[in-house]
Automatic annotation (TrEMBL):
Protein name: A24 family peptidase
A Pfam entry, by short name: Peptidase_A24
InterPro entries listed in its UniProt record: Preflagellin_Peptidase, Preflagellin_peptidase_C, Prepilin_IV_endopep_pep
MF GO annotations: aspartic-type endopeptidase activity
Transmembrane annotation, as ranges: 38-56, 68-87, 99-117, 129-151, 298-320
């Protein structure tokens, strides 16, 4: 028993990733911001445990020894570049990519935990690369979320072509929400205003969403911009005026921008911050401002970071194992 416990020491050390990823998922949901210092100790643990395991497989005299190094190579040389590439093309956020890169180092091969009556994980894939198991589990968990959204919206009577990818949200709640508008004044869009960019704009002007909705005609005039302020990065909870509220009579607010050269001072705002507001363009900002000053509710993307299903995928992988492999085996495909 003592020998088995000693053999499990590297894997037990790797379990520190569970509370760390759990905290990261919680923090990312609340703020969409994760400190870079989170990953350094986890990478250090991964390198240490990987070195210990590698020594145990040297010299490479057996098939298992060679398989160990092949699996490490697949995890490090495939998953890390894949995570980086997905971040590069915008498929992942930076924190999501860093989480996957860290897990590729921490869990290149399947851990083993011996408990009374069984050994965990219960189901291992033929490939034997645990980091890929975590990723496929995360994808399967993530695919379940649109179903949840669809059912949730249907029960609330929010029937829409985008009911599986969005949720109806009160405009007054936007100062503490995350995600991207799925609406324009003309209909639905996949490229609406990012709520973080909206917060940046409000902070730059030193105003609130309630004030904007209460007097949109004044704020539409670019000459109404007085002293400007640090827009921050749009995170919820930064020092800024973020009060929500309803417009005095939003149904009567005009949705046109008149003859102004720079309605809402959108172009000036983006020029002041060197144009970096989560991909927002002047026209995209103007369109979003027209929406939030003329609607009581809007369709908003869920804004759930991928690190949440990554954390759940890790927990499932440690207890059950590979969901995809289990499903394929259940239907006789493997």
């Amino acid at each position: 028993m003592l020998g088995a416990t000693t053999d499990m020491l590297p894997d037990l050390l790797r379990l520190l990733a569970v509370p760390a990823l759990g905290w990261a998922a919680w923090r990312d949901v609340r703020t969409r911001r994760l400190p870079n210092r989170l990953w350094t100790p986890l990478v250090a643990i991964g390198l240490l445990t990987l070195a210990v395991d590698a020594v145990g497989h040297l010299p490479m005299t057996t098939v298992d020894d060679r398989l160990f190094f092949v699996r490490v190579g697949v995890s490090v040389l495939i998953l890390i570049p894949l995570a980086y590439a997905l971040w590069w093309v915008g498929g992942f956020g930076g924190a999501d990519a860093k989480a996957l890169m860290t897990l590729a180092i921490l869990f290149p091969t399947y851990p083993v935990f011996y408990l009374p009556g069984d050994a965990y994980p219960l189901v291992a894939s033929n490939l034997g690369v645990f980091s890929l198991t975590i990723l496929t589990n995360a994808v399967l968990v993530g695919l379940a979320y649109p179903l949840y959204l669809g059912v949730r919206n249907a029960l609330r009577g929010d029937i829409s072509p985008i009911m599986f990818v969005g949720r109806r949200t009160a405009v007054a709640a936007l100062p503490t929400e995350h995600g991207r508008l799925f609406e324009t004044t003309e209909g639905f869009t996949r490229h609406g205003l990012d709520v973080d960019a909206l917060r940046m704009y409000l902070r730059w002007r030193g105003t609130s969403l309630a004030a904007l909705r209460g007097d949109p005609e004044t704020y539409r005039d670019p000459e109404s911009v007085g002293e400007t302020h640090d827009p921050t990065d749009g995170a919820v909870g930064a020092a800024a005026v973020d009060a929500g509220g309803d417009a005095d009579d939003p149904d009567t607010v005009p949705d046109f921008d008149g003859d102004y050269d720079d309605p809402w001072a959108a172009e000036r705002f983006l020029d002041d911050i060197e144009g970096n507001a989560y991909g927002t363009t002047p026209e995209g900002l103007r369109e979003g401002l027209r929406v939030v000053t003329t609607r009581e509710t809007v369709w908003l993307s869920p804004g759930v970071p991928f690190i949440v299903p990554v954390f759940l995928g890790l927990v499932i992988a440690l207890i059950y194992g590979d969901l995809l492999f289990g499903l394929l085996r259940a239907v006789g495909a493997v």
